[in-house]
Amino acid sequence: MKEKEVLWAAKIIREGGIVAFPTETVYGLGADVFNPLAVARIFEVKQSPYFDPLIVHIDDPTPIETLVKDVPLTAKELIERYWPGPLTIVLLKKDKIELVLSSYYYLYNNSLKYN
């Protein structure tokens, strides 16, 4: 994507909207992880049940510490070796992350998937 498109998408996300973006395999829908209404809109647009968890895509592993309770050493080693790339890691979310993001299916283990 071109820088102009990325800046435009970032503006939409900051304003509570959702955007489509390419991944390694398919197109994804993105929203502000801290905006539960925007996250709920992704489920609505995709017509997905709320028990299907969403993935949090991050461009730099640094902010992961603000989103999860702990990053085990093994996960840190995998992140260092394979990110950026198509590696998904499931970690326990911090309480400030709304349950709608982790889906009702993951309600009992408080997990989030990261890619």
Q: Brief overview, please?
A:
36% of the residues lie in helices and 16% in strands.
What does this molecule look like?
The protein is α+β, with helices and mostly antiparallel strands. Helix content is 36%, strand content 16%. The chain has 5 helices and 5 strands. The strands form 2 sheets. It has a 3-stranded mixed sheet, with no helix packed on it. Strands 1-2 form a two-stranded antiparallel ribbon. A hairpin with a 4-residue loop joins β1 (19-22) and β2. It starts with a helix and ends with a strand.
Return the domain count: 1
Largest sheet: 3 strands, mixed
The strand count comes to 5
> Between the first and last Cα atoms, what is the distance in angstroms?
18 Å
β-strand amount: 15-25%
CATH homologous superfamily designation: DHBP synthase
Rounded Rg: 14 Å
Q: What characteristic shape results from the CA principal axes?
A: globular
What is the N-to-C succession of helices and strands? HEEHEHHEHE
Highlighted features:
115 residues; 3-stranded mixed sheet; two-stranded antiparallel sheet; 5 helices; 36% helix
Topology:
Layout: H1 3-14, E1 19-22, E2 27-30, H2 36-46, E3 55-56, H3 64-67, H4 73-82, E4 89-92, H5 99-102, E5 111-114
Parallel strand pairs: 3-5
Antiparallel strand pairs: 1-2, 4-5
